[in-house]
From TrEMBL:
The keyword Methyltransferase does not apply. Homodimer. GO terms for biological process: isopentenyl diphosphate biosynthetic process, methylerythritol 4-phosphate pathway; terpenoid biosynthetic process; thiamine biosynthetic process. GO terms for cellular component: cytosol. This is 1-deoxy-D-xylulose-5-phosphate synthase. InterPro entries: Dxylulose-5-P_synthase, THDP-binding, Transketo_C/PFOR_II, Transketolase-like_Pyr-bd, Transketolase_BS, Transketolase_C. Its EC number is 2.2.1.7. It is an enzyme of class 2 (transferase). The gene is dxs. Residues 358-522 form the Transketolase-like pyrimidine-binding domain.
């Protein structure tokens, strides 16, 4: 039987704000500028906990959405941060907090980059301007920050597993609480989401999954799953929910404002009503619904949360909703920087830099394009990070050699392994923190078979405002214990370019590990060179040759510049001689150079890395000296390892994080003084 969701029957639900609310006009505004002055938000200001929403009428909830959106715009201008996704879930967040009894009921966000409205409604409104800053709110939900943050997150595709775990534990303990997971169409491309859905059906768990489908990941949504979602749109049907929670198939009502062209993916077949992946694997499916229509969401979610077993409610939203520039450019507005301070009129404009420094990701992008022109075997893979990894030019110039595999790090690695078996040379561009997802694949599928795969590992080290979830500080440790792996760490942008080339040219598995943002500003010197593998460089020798204390400062990657500055200070203050060594390679280590340094009468050795101390490059040096070095048996300099201490480093500006770890120049100097005293 077909029925319109606007029929009287489908409106008869019980909560006060939901009755006959469907007829209410939407007040949704679209803004074109980010306010610099805190907007008036009387309704929002009255909410200190989600329970305060209980008194709201449907009309007030709609008005609240406008206030909240405007407040988010203002706050993002003050703090920067993830932008488009947050604007897109304003209505959904309000409705969830209206209908559910958090923190008793569990709201689980996927990725968590869209949880700003959730933070605002759960007592953190006045702190939102501090988000991502040192000592401010975290960029993502975090259990330590609020009881309303049920599960810490930052990496994607975890919500259904975590939510299922909660649901099963609650069932086991006889505690009837609702668990609602909110997952985007991008996050759902991650394999874990499917593993969890498979299990949820097996367990017949009570679990409400809300699929927030905005047809966007960071880039445009891609892949078979995305086509499937587009097909659900193209079919023109909707699976509505009856008052008793039964699916009712009907013609989808007109949904104003959604960009149909974006969703119109290449369909192989005419969309069939019965083609529904979620239903096929055993979920009860409802949707698609307009995720910006508060009355509709209230009606549907109130009923859906009472349905037993695993339920998926599919809503359409617009990324960047309500801010015209973000709606037009959702990729560019995925995240924004905070607004620059307003200049008084008589301030002269800042002088333009002649040559802006390249970010490491841009260096990688340039390398990819240059190399692809000369070598047609080069193929490049990204798990959903095309823009961030600097691959947009390459994707445009070489579309047939560019593979965005969606949020699928494990697959990205094994895909490369498979490619390498067929005589091409794949490069996997991946953020260090996300490579953690592909570790078994790196060992089992790439290294064990010694396949010719290059890993371009971006965002290595501390990444700043995204905080501990995104810190790429474990890679030396987890890579260097894998046989066959070569690991390079460039000291600057130019060296990055040449090390990428060196590793690419090497027949086997290699990794070049470089940080977020810009380095020292070193210009790229073309043509690409091939460096000697495992060869370090003495950068400089600071201080007098006859100094009684001789320190070898073995610096890795991003720490070479700090090592050089610290060496100047320490040589001056302590009258010692410092050899600053750019180690360049974590594996193989330049053991020849280490032996030479020892033979040279070095009295102290310090290693320096932007990586966890435990198991990192310093550990590699220690292991060599203790287990293999011939010279170290006779001559034992005092050793100190400098790196990130054994704790997770909180968010803040990169410089603040470095200082927190003692990795700024002052911190390094002070640790070297301890060693030398
Ligand atoms: C494992 C992992 N890989 C990549 C990312 C980077 N990332 C953050 S948000 C995002 C897109 C998520 O898309 P979607 O879930 O649809 O959310 P939307 O931004 O569209 O609301 C990506 C790729 C991540 N956080 N975790
Ligand atoms: C939420 C998420 O994982 C990404 O959006 C991430 O914040 C991007 O980081 P970059 O800004 O370093 O590309
Ligand atoms: Mg999305």
């Amino acid at each position: 039987m077909q029925q319109s969701p606007y029929s009287p029957q489908s409106q008869s639900v019980s909560a006060s704000a939901t009755t006959s609310a469907v007829q209410l006009p939407s007040l949704q505004q679209t803004y074109t500028a980010i306010p610099r002055v805190r907007p008036q938000t009387p309704l929002l200001d009255s909410i200190d906990t989600p329970a305060d929403l209980n008194a709201f009428s449907s009309a007030q909830l709609i008005a609240l959405a406008d206030e909240l959106r405007l407040f988010l715009l203002y706050s993002a201008g003050q703090s920067g941060g993830h932008f488009g996704a947050n604007l897109g879930v304003v209505e959904l967040t309000i409705v969830l907090h209206y209908l559910l009894d958090a923190p008793h009921d569990q709201i689980v966000w996927d990725v968590g980059h869209q949880a700003y409205a959730h933070k605002v409604l759960t007592g953190r409104r006045d702190q939102l301007g501090s988000i991502r800053a040192k000592d401010g709110l975290t960029a993502f939900p975090e259990r330590a920050e609020s009881v309303y943050d049920t599960f810490g997150v930052g990496h994607s595709s975890t919500s259904i597993s975590a939510g299922l775990g909660m649901s099963l534990a609650l069932r086991y303990q006889g505690r009837p609480q609702t668990v609602a997971c909110i997952i985007g169409d991008g996050a759902m491309t991650g394999g874990m989401a499917f593993e969890a859905m498979n299990d949820a059906v097996q367990q017949d768990a009570d679990l409400l999954v809300i699929l927030n489908d905005n047809d966007m990941s960071i880039s445009c949504s891609i892949g078979g799953f995305s086509r499937h979602l587009a097909m659900l749109w193209e079919s023109g049907y909707q699976v509505d929910i009856s008052d008793s929670g039964q699916p009712i198939v009907c013609q989808r009502p007109d949904m104003q404002g959604f960009d149909r062209r974006k969703r119109h993916k290449e369909m192989r077949d005419v969309p069939q009503l019965e083609d529904n992946l979620f239903k096929a694997i055993g979920f009860t499916y409802f949707g698609p619904f307009d995720g910006h229509n508060i009355p509709e969401l209230l009606r549907v979610l109130l009923l859906a949360k009472q349905v037993k077993g695993p339920v998926l409610v599919h809503v359409y939203t617009t990324k960047g909703k309500g801010f015209a520039p973000a709606e037009l450019d959702p990729v560019g507005y995925h995240a924004i920087s905070k607004l620059p301070d307003e200049q008084p009129h008589d301030t002269p404009p800042a002088a333009k830099k002649s040559q802006p420094a390249l970010k490491y990701s841009q260096v990688f992008g340039q390398f990819l394009c240059d190399k692809a022109h000369e070598d047609d075997k080069l193929l490049a893979i990204t798990p959903a990070m095309e823009e961030g990894s600097g691959m947009t030019d390459f994707a445009r110039q070489f579309p047939e050699r560019f593979f965005d595999v969606a949020i699928a790090e494990q697959h990205a690695v094994t895909l490369a392994a498979g490619m390498a078996t067929q005589g091409v040379k794949p490069i996997v561009a991946i953020y260090s923190t996300f490579l953690q997802r592909g570790y078994d694949q790196l060992i089992h599928d790439v290294a064990l078979q010694d396949l010719d795969v290059t890993f371009a590992i971006d965002r290595a080290g501390l990444v700043g405002e995204d905080g501990a979830t995104h810190a790429g500080v474990f890679d030396f440790a987890f890579l260097r214990c894998v046989p066959n792996m070569l690991i390079a760490a460039p000291k600057d942008e130019n060296e990055c370019y040449h090390l990428l080339n060196t590793c690419y040219e090497y027949q086997g598995c290699t990794a070049v590990r470089y940080p977020r943002g810009v380095g020292t500003g070193a210009a790229i010197e073309r043509p690409a060179q091939t460096y000697d593998i495992g060869k370090a460089m003495i950068e400089s020798v600071v201080g007098r040759d006859d100094a009684p204390l001789k320190l070898a400062l073995l610096a890795f990657g991003s720490m070479v510049a700090a090592a050089y500055s610290a060496a100047q200070d320490i040589a001056q203050q302590l009258h010692c001689q410092v050899h600053v060594v750019n180690m360049r390679w974590v594996k193989p280590l330049d053991t020849v150079l280490l032996e030479e340094i020892l033979a040279d009468g070095i009295t102290h050795i310090a290693t320096l890395e932007e990586h966890m101390l435990m198991g990192g490059a310093g550990s590699a040096v220690n292991e060599y000296l203790l287990n293999e070095s011939a010279a170290f048996k006779h001559h034992r300099p005092a050793i100190c390892n400098i790196g990130i201490p054994d704790r997770f480093i909180a968010h803040g500006a990169p410089a603040e994080q470095m200082a927190d770890c003692g990795l700024d120049v002052a911190g390094v100097v002070s640790q070297l003084k301890q060693l030398l005293k």
